[in-house]
Amino acid sequence: MSPVPTTPVLEGRVALVTGGASGIGRATCEGLGRAGASVVVADLNGEGAEAVARALHADGVAALGVAADVGDEASIEAMIEAAVAEFGGLDILHNNAADSDPELIGRDLAVAEMDAAVWDRTMRVNLRGPMLGCKYAIPHMITRGGGSIVNTSSASGLTGDFARSAYAASKAGLRSLTESVAAQYGKKGIRSNAIAPGVISTPALEANVPADQVAIYAENTLTPGLGRAEDIAAVVVFLASEAAAFITGQMLSVDGGLLAHHPAMAEIRKRVGR
What we know:
Blueprint: E1 14-18, H1 23-34, E2 38-43, H2 46-58, E3 63-67, H3 73-87, E4 92-95, H4 102-106, H5 116-143, E5 147-152, H6 165-185, E6 190-197, E7 200-201, H7 203-208, H8 211-220, E8 227-228, H9 229-240, E9 251-254, H10 265-272
């Protein structure tokens, strides 16, 4: 059963989700639609975005699919303008898209081995893209009295690792961006928060993380299983709703307790049979 509420807590709101064609993005589009919002599905995969929009429409949700490259400023501006033109405004922005190309991830190495081109491409999509999304969305939100921005960060942005240095830094940067937007536009009705997912079962996980490594993450997750895209979607819907009206400038870990325990706990638990 999906944890996303089916009550229309977002009735009359207009939401835009980047990276909306699959994984967390698609689940969030579906969750926002079930909560009553009109939904703009934006993705580099334009056909995928349109397919999700058609599926939403078949379920009675007002939806629009838009091809958008969050690595390109003109494309981001056009994406926002398309949402406003279609639905008359914008209330919710979920900056979710990230560059999950396996070839790029495979070249995202330790710092001393880093190709600057890998670093720059990662930052362009994962950090610069959300900044530009905020830049073009905020003025439209202010004209409607405010809005909610939710950025998808990552547990990787809260810790160090053997590799994926650029990805981690880009996700850590989203926390600061989130806080800056909250500080700068809070008095104008803009709330800005971030979510730090743990290991979530998505196509991107399957493409980029070997099964034996996923098993290690599962052992270190405190819940019985790994997270689902719907678990993240439920938190986005909550943060976008009036139930979260007094929450802004926060990074919320949604990681099944992955980072809540001592690093040695999983191995010790196996040895003592717990």
